[in-house]
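Figure 6 in text form: structure in, sequence out.
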């Protein structure tokens, strides 16, 4: 992948696609002598989620998560005009990787529950899907900035935990992903 993107006047060389979510494409990128995540906002339709101004939502959600004490990567730059964000890269396996490999995410459930309690105390839910959690040095990091007002049905215990092991919900997700390419 020999492509480069500019954020706030700085050039970042894209190394590989990390993921494609509801709000954008996240790339591992190299810039200023370090690896970072560069997120390019997209405007593709999403049947189950309504968006307003995505770049402002990223800025607002980063602030809300920081104030709530959720362990997240530091935001390095935000370019509203280009709809791009640069944030700290947290290297490590995701909870999704662990579950896919047939290993237990049990050692990380306590930390996930601590994050969930902090989020709930701040009136928030985070996206508990296991691709959004990376382990580094024994700690889990929430690497997405998405958060929403707290609703019990979307809490970790009522929704997120269903994807932290090889549950029927996790298996259904894998089948759907396989069928959609």
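Output sequence:
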């Amino acid at each position: 992948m020999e492509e480069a993107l500019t954020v706030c006047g700085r050039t970042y060389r894209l190394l590989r696609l990390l993921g494609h979510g509801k709000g954008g494409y996240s790339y591992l990128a190299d810039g200023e002598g370090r690896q970072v995540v560069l997120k390019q906002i997209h405007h593709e339709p999403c049947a189950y989620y309504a968006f307003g101004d995505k770049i402002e939502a990223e800025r607002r959600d980063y602030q809300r998560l920081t104030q709530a004490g959720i362990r997240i990567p530091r935001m390095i730059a935000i370019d509203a005009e280009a709809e791009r964000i640069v944030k700290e890269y947290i290297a490590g396996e995701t909870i999704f990787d662990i579950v896919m490999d047939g290993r237990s995410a049990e050692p990380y459930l306590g930390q996930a529950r601590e994050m969930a309690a902090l989020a709930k105390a701040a009136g928030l839910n985070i996206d508990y899907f296991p691709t959004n959690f990376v382990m580094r040095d024994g700690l889990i990091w929430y690497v997405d900035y998405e958060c929403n007002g707290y609703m019990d049905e979307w809490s970790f215990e009522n929704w997120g935990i269903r994807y932290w092991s090889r549950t029927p919900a996790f298996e259904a997700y894998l089948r759907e992903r396989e069928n959609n390419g």
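Caption detail: Residues 106-121 form the longest helix (16 residues).
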